[in-house]
Amino acid sequence: MAYPHLAVEISGPGAHPAAAGPPGAAFDPDELTRVARLADDAGFALVTLDDSAQPSGGGIEAGVRAAYLALRTQTIGLAPALHVTTTEPFHLATQLASLDIATHGRAAWLVSAQNSAAALATVGREPLAVEALREEVRDVIEVGRQLWDSWEDDAIIKDVATGQFLDPDRVHHINFVGDTFSVIGPLITPRPPQGQVVVLGADTLGVTGQLDIALVDGIDLERQVSRARRDGAPRVFAELDVLLGTDESAQTRLEALDARTPWGPPTRLRHVGSPEALRDLLRRLAEHVDGVRLHPAVLDVDLPGLVEQLNGLGPLRGATLRETLRLPRPINRFATSSREVTAS
Question: Where is the Luciferase-like domain (predicted)?
């Protein structure tokens, strides 16, 4: 029986509030590389790198961590969380395009929208109302996709005879005007290898139709998946906390962790049990979702267990993340329109 695509969150010490990792791990590039390579070698589709927009949160910014891993991983997708509310849209799109170029087509964007007063104070903004926040998320995703299309695939011609590097007719201004920002474009990098970076985010963002992957918490799985697909998400991943049994039972481990800081009621699907039961759960989930994003309860303990138990179980990976996920490479909107103008 088939297994879903496997993604794993590798930021912080783990999903359990009492999780602890090696001292200084948040600033240790060798530890970051070690963890990412575990998932890479196991054949997982992608790792996500969550982030806090507040400098006091500690650690290195997710986009920087992903860039560091670009040449230190082989075939796994890299999905940093970048915040639409605290990052200029043009810089965000450029950062992700550069990551895709550096990884030869393995970049993704975990859409995040910090809206706390403390986070927004770092950029001199006030918290947004719910609908205004959703509109800003929509605008930033849309401008990102337009900027990734602003260079046609064949814009770089490298004509030695004329000394011409690119064809200016194939590099386009996007002239985007939103409620809170405007962008003229074009991007300062060529079109990403994937055409457009894979975009994933929670179904609760209210922009499911703009995502490549909608993340659902799985508490009401069938209804959530049905709604996400109806709203236009090409792929749907379930979120899953995992605490595995090791030398001691999973329940004993959970009780020891809860004695320090209680985990509380689940806010997403949660597996506390044996590796065998986890594999059964993943096979059942594969009947409903395309993938699962795993959240190890204690990264240093549960990630090695996940790697050992799930090594090679997901679908085979392709040359790019889009190929791995069986997502088509988007047609460049400007190339299509410019060809139509020429033809007419």
Answer: 21-202
